[in-house]
Amino acid sequence: MQKVAAPRRWPAIKIVAIPKLVKTIIFVALLVAATSYLGNTSRQIGQAGNALLSFSPDSLLMFVWLLLALVLVATTAGLLAVLVCPLWVCFVAFAAASLAWLFICGLNLINLVLALLFFLAGFLYSRGVARGLREHITFTMHPIKDSQPLLFIVLMIAISVGEYHPRGSSGAWGRKCRGQSWWVSTIL
């Protein structure tokens, strides 16, 4: 009788755990990059001015980029709030993202207020997600889903108000500046 050779075994794949610090740095960097992208997109929309009111392929493309930036910020904020512990790291991450927003959009009083508003929304969002996950025994998407409208509302306010920059003689509150969209002028 012939001996049958044993089947060849593939070497075992070792799953290497990512150190907690590396994971934290990656998620913080993703949030800062997504917020920087959102700030850059918002700045470009503000510079485009009334071109957004015309229904052209360029304005549609700007809207798509803006929507993509919002989804990126919301997704990275959700991943950060769920996967990064302790909670103060999330607060530091949102502070870094707020600084990125501030430096990308420009240093002025309005952008400073918007950056603080974004930090506050991130603070409340992280705290709400952490509290919701602590109250549930198994993982569920409800804390993320319940806290996300606040983050989206603040981001939309930041984008719409971010277009209002005092320029030249038309810098007084209540006056429409160049580049301000129609929906901001209805609020002011």
What key phrases describe this protein's structure?
188 residues; mainly alpha; disordered C terminus
Quickly describe the structure.
This protein has helices at 20-48, 57-83, 87-105, 109-135, 142-162, 182-187. With 188 residues, it is an all-alpha fold.
Task: Provide the residue-averaged pLDDT.
Answer: 78
The helix count comes to: 6
Taking all Cα atoms into account, the compactness measure Rg is: 22 Å
Q: What is the SS-derived class?
A: mainly alpha
Give the terminus-to-terminus CA distance.
93 Å
Helix content: 55-70%
Strand content: under 5%
Main beta sheet: strand number and arrangement? none
Number of strands: 0
Shape: extended
In N-to-C order, the SSE pattern is HHHHHH
Unreliable spans: 166-188
Describe the structure.
- 69% of the residues lie in helices and 0% in strands.
- The chain is built from 6 helices and no strands.
- The protein has helices at 20-48, 57-83, 87-105, 109-135, 142-162, 182-187.
- Helix 1 packs antiparallel against helix 2, helix 3 (87-105) runs antiparallel to helix 4 (109-135) and helix 4 packs antiparallel against helix 5.
Topology (SSEs and partners):
Layout: H1 20-48, H2 57-83, H3 87-105, H4 109-135, H5 142-162, H6 182-187
